[in-house]
């Protein structure tokens, strides 16, 4: 059995708070769970702080203590960079439902008041907890400035990792989340401010005039498009369609003439033509 890691009083107290919270949710707090939390805090003490660990070291530390780190993040006791969030699979929304029940109930009530679907409430709640993990600010205390900063950082992290579709998806979720927080009085504006000035302020953009084309002159593209001489390849579909039309017309004309009529077939070029002799009266 490995020896118990000696921690400073603040970190030892932090681990005890975590274990107490887990017991309150009737979660497992066995030796492996406790050891993972102790090892995480020991790494921070050896390095001096969380920020002094490299991105690879932070990722490794989170992977070996997911439950403890998730608890630290949703309770605002630890923050991580947005770039790291795209490399670790932390279901912060699920974890926060248990550790932040009052905040979760507040948000669900706000979503239900707006008649949001349960799945959309869950998506927005997860995005809200990502913003908390980035900023370290509780969900019900985020300001417009805090929300916008977290939103931009998270979306940029997905795009920078080469996941544009995920970035667009997160952007759409954050747009809906802003509306929800606005309607429940958390944010002061229903949408983020545009970074581009209004046309009434900036005026219309001057477009340089293109050089005029001399009268009668045509560009190579337009001359080829208007060339009346068709190429051999371009006439094949039309010739095939014309031949089919002639065959159809020939059958129709043959069906309409009387049995006493005679017909003779001649050749005009490559298209067969049927000359019909009308029946005598």
Number of helices: 13
Q: Give the DSSP E fraction (strand runs of 2 or more residues).
A: under 5%
Tell me, briefly, the overall form.
elongated
Major β-sheet profile: 2 strands, antiparallel
Going by helix content, strand content and strand pairing, the class is mainly alpha
Give the strand tally: 2
Largest beta sheet: strand ordering: 1-2
Kindly report the average pLDDT value: 79
How much helical structure, as a percent, in the residues? 55-70%
Q: Write the element-wise H/E pattern from the N-terminal end onward.
A: HHHHHHHHHHHHHEE
Gyration radius (Cα, Å) is: 37 Å
Low-confidence stretches: 221-239, 260-271, 273-277
Distance between the termini: 119 Å
Written overview of the protein:
This protein is mainly alpha-helical and 281 residues long. The chain has a domain at 9-183. 59% of the residues lie in helices and 5% in strands. The protein contains 13 helices and two strands. The protein has helices at residues 9-24, 31-47, 55-63, 66-74, 82-85, 92-99, 101-113, 118-135, 144-160, 164-183, 199-202, 220-225, 232-256; strands at residues 262-268, 271-277. Strands 1-2 form a two-stranded antiparallel sheet. α4 (66-74) crosses α6 (92-99), α8 (118-135) packs across α9 and α9 (144-160) runs antiparallel to α10. The longest helix is centred in the last third of the chain and has 25 residues, at 232-256. Residues 221-239, 260-271 and 273-277 have low confidence and may be disordered.
């Amino acid at each position: 059995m490995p020896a118990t890691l000696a921690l400073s009083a603040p970190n030892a107290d932090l681990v005890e708070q975590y274990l107490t919270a887990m017991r309150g949710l009737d979660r497992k707090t066995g030796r492996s769970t406790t050891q993972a939390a102790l090892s995480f805090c020991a790494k921070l003490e050896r390095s001096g702080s969380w920020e002094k660990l490299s991105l690879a070291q932070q990722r490794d530390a989170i992977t070996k203590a997911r439950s403890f780190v998730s608890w630290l993040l949703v309770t605002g006791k630890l923050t991580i960079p947005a770039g790291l969030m795209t490399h670790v699979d932390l279901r912060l929304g699920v974890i926060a439902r248990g550790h932040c029940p009052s905040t979760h109930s507040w948000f669900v009530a706000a979503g239900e008041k707006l008649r949001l679907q349960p799945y959309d409430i869950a998506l927005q709640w997860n995005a809200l907890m990502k913003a908390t993990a980035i900023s370290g600010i509780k969900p019900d205390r985020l300001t417009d400035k805090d929300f916008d900063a977290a939103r931009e950082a998270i979306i940029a992290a997905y795009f920078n990792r080469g996941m544009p579709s995920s970035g667009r998806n997160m952007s759409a979720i954050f747009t809906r989340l802003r509306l929800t927080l606005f309607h429940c009085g958390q944010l002061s504006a229903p949408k983020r401010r545009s970074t581009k000035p209004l046309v009434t302020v900036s005026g219309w953009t001057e477009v340089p005039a293109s050089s005029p084309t001399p009268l009668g002159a045509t560009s190579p593209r337009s001359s080829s498009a208007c060339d009346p001489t068709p190429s051999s390849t371009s006439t094949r579909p039309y010739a095939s369609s014309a031949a089919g039309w002639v065959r159809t017309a020939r059958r129709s004309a043959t069906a309409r003439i009387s049995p006493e009529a005679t017909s003779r077939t001649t050749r005009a070029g490559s298209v067969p033509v049927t000359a019909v002799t009308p029946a005598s009266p």
